[in-house]
Amino acid sequence: MPIRPFHLAIPVHDLKAARKFYCDVLGCPTGRSTEHWMDFDLYGHQLVCHEVAGYGPVTAATASNFVDDEAVPIPHFGVVLEWHEFEALAEQLHSHAVQFLIEPSVRFVGLPGEQATMFLADPSGNMLEFKAMRDPEQLFSA
Is residue 119 classed exposed, middle or buried when 0-12, 13-18 and 19+ CB atoms within 10 A define those classes? Predict the structure, then answer.
């Protein structure tokens, strides 16, 4: 079955700050927009940021779950990349002095499901995870 693009709409407190982060930092092309929302192409997936009055940055401490001894923020979203794409994105984010909640690292080393992962927040506090599987065939392995 072909992989289909995913659509996700999220709230942001400042659409201009969201545009700067998603375009300038992550390198996402833009799509349609109005003064209150904007489409971004996040690795072929449609991410829509909606400016919401009164919405504010959320801290990672709001909710988390431990995965491989790391407090992973819940909720979060992101993209599974190829290993070389992950490394390039990590370098790009470091060049923009992005603050990571969880620095780029490899977890489950030597086990099924070994993966590189990193967590960061956008300017509105929406949590993102980017990961890459050592063996992409193990993405859904039990």
Answer: buried
The tokens of 6 are what? 């995913």
Residue 80 DSSP SS3 = strand
Residues 133 and 77 in one domain: yes
Residue 116 lies in a domain: yes
Mean pLDDT of all residues in 46-68? 78
Instruction: Tell me whether the omega of the peptide bond preceding residue 75 falls within 30 degrees of 0, making it cis.
Output: yes
SS3 22: helix
Instruction: Count other Cβ atoms within 10 Å, centred on residue 33.
Output: 14
- What is the tens place of the pLDDT at every residue in 78-120? 999 999 999 999 999 999 999 999 999 999 999 889 999 999 9
Residue with tokens 């490394």: 87
Residue 47 in domain = yes
Query: Taking Cα atoms as reference points, which of 9, 132, 134, 127 lies closest to residue 57?
Result: 127
Q: Is residue 2 part of a domain?
A: no
